[in-house]
Amino acid sequence: MSAQGIETGKRLGESFGARVHLAHVFPPLQGSDLLAVAIAWQETPASLAKALKEGSLSELKSLASKYALSTGDNLHFREGAPVFDVISSLASEIPADLLVVPTHAFRGVKRFFLGSTAERLVQHSPCPILVDRRSATRLPAKRLLWAPSLRIDKILVPVDFSTCSLDGLRYAIQFAQRFGANITVLHVLDLGYAQPMDINMPRELTRFARAATKDGAGQMRRFVKRLKFGRIRFKTELLIGTPVAEISDFARANDFDLIVTATHGLTGFKHVLMGSIAEHLVRRSQVPILVVPSHPEVRRANITAFRKSRSRAQFGRKRKGRGTSN
To answer: Which pLDDT band, with edges at 50, 70 and 90, does 87 fall under?
Structure first.
């Protein structure tokens, strides 16, 4: 579990006057793995599984007490898999307005096939999710009696001028109003160049690039006029290059406190091949990212349908097993 993740969630709750829920998912123990550990510890598999679950629950309660969180209805201990599905379902049940999670990035083949829980939540969460790789640290032995207040001064909002991007910008404005932050709205023109080019160097731009830049600037002006920023100070930026790399580098180079982006929620084979910009940012960026899901009602319906289909499959396997034993 993450110390900074809990601190971040608590401070956000205090800032927005929201209740903070603390949750832990205990994955089912595999038979062969459980048996090997049980033999090593000279325990029966059943007693070992019970002891591990009780230990995890005790640790969860201890964390809630350490961080002055309620141990009543706000504490959730669930057993099941996959973890992202259990968390998504819990978020729907509460219902949660925001998920705060650390991320443990995988690389190579393991990441391609498994992904991280954070990336899967970006795909399936029915509510916005705040992902912070910097919060993936072990808990300290003792909680600090004093911690600095949560500060969000600069928010970066990457957009592609879609309705989903508009939702992301609208959400960013709410955060900026709460924290008194400034917003930078960024659009990256992907012209297929292997190396990004500086749009402030017109001599090096082709005629096509100049036209694309002019068109992008016009779209940006029309896009930001669709929302009211009120007293929030904002500016716009256009870059040329590969979106994920440009967004990540721009956020880090300019010391942004938060990236707010929307996801189109691609699923299936197309998603496996391409992924989404939001997921790639979760994987790469060192700046905390708040991902706003598109069509949350559809995601909630998908969660329900997925759980029903899995329950039917499990019931079918049990019936088949009983038939075989007879």
So the answer is: very high
Question: Token pair 């669709």 is at which residue?
Answer: 226
Segment holding 109, helix H or strand E = helix 108-114
CATH code for position 281: 3.40.50.620
SS3 79: strand
Can you give the pTM of this predicted structure? 0.78
**Residue 139 shares a structural domain with residue 49:** yes
Same structural domain, 18 and 126? yes
Q: What backbone phi and psi angles, to 5 degrees, belong to 189?
A: -85, 110
Shared domain for 40 and 111, answered yes or no, is yes
Q: Residue 124 sits in which domain range?
A: 1-29+36-143
CB 296 within 8 A of CB 126: yes
Residue 153 token pair: 């001064």
8 A C-beta contact, residue 12 and residue 65: no
Output the six-digit token pair for 51.
Answer: 């002891």
Instruction: Tell me the β-bridge partners of 136.
Output: none
28 vs 83: CA distance, rounded Å: 10
Give Cα 58 to chain centroid, integer Å. 27
Q: Which of 135, 118, 127, 149 is nearest to 287 (CA)?
A: 135
* Per-residue pLDDT tens over the stretch 278-309: 888 888 888 999 999 876 554 445 545 555 56
How many independent structural domains does the chain possess? 3
Tell me, yes or no, whether 199 and 257 share the same domain. yes
Last residue of a domain, one of 143, 162, 189: 143
Distance from C-alpha of 233 to C-alpha of 88, rounded to nearest angstrom: 34
Q: Assess whether 162 and 261 both reside in one domain.
A: yes
CA 104 to CA 101: how far, in whole Å?
A: 10
Through-space distance between the first and last CA atoms of the chain, rounded to whole angstroms: 45
Q: At what angle do helices 83-93 and 296-325 cross, to 10 degrees?
A: 120
**Whether 157 and 109 share a structural domain:** no
